[in-house]
Amino acid sequence: MTTDNPNRIARLTLGADAAALTAALLALDADAEARVLVLSGDWSAIGASLRDGASDDPVAALGALRIPVVAWVDGDCRDEALELALAADIRIAGESAAFRMGHVREGRLPSHGGTQRLTRAVGRGQALRLLLTGETLDADDALRVGLVHDVGDLEDAEALAVSIADAGPIAAQYVKEAITASADLPLRDGMRLEADLSILLHSTADRAEGLRSFAEKRKARFEGR
Predict the structure, then answer these.
(1) Burial of 209 (0-12, 13-18, 19+ CB in 10 A)
(2) Is the model's pTM score more than 0.85?
(3) What values do phi and psi take at 126, rounded to 5?
(4) What is the pLDDT of residues 135-163, one digit of tens each?
(5) Quick one: which of 37, 115, 129, 182 has the most CB atoms within 10 Å?
(6) CA distances from 170 to 31, 34, 88, 89, 142 (A)
């Protein structure tokens, strides 16, 4: 894992070692300086590692990460690899990306949250179609159904990460927490959580810095406090 200190962006490059990825994600979650993660690399290799029954579960670790995650996906992203990608917050597909949930075609089921996260990403009908048929989507089709949020190169993912890192880091984490919880909460409870997080944010130095920077017409200098 590498971290860009000026922008406090963490970068993880995927390989075939699920245990190493899990360890890196857990370490990152404990890093108070990191503001956003860019995840890229060999999606096919990490998918094969997960399918082989790796004892560590980087999908759960990625899904629980407190900071926003931008995943850049290129090449084959199938089955377990796609389950990992779905645990990211924002997905950008490279031009040669190919996505498939082929578990059912092989007589098995997703076991890393694929049925749940795919449904939340593309809706019930599309999730059923993709899981039951094992259809492969290219980047443009993945964008059309909502599986990814944009098509571009790694530089586009990096630029998006810089934009996120420039925002208030505590506010960004609270936004992620509220939106993640919204999938499981009634509207009234979700609104209550949003209000509670807003009150907590008001007690931070970052909130005061945001107000000062607005009044002084300058860029805010957030410190994550």
Answers:
(1) middle
(2) yes
(3) -65, -40
(4) 999 999 999 999 999 999 999 999 999 99
(5) 37
(6) 13, 11, 18, 16, 31
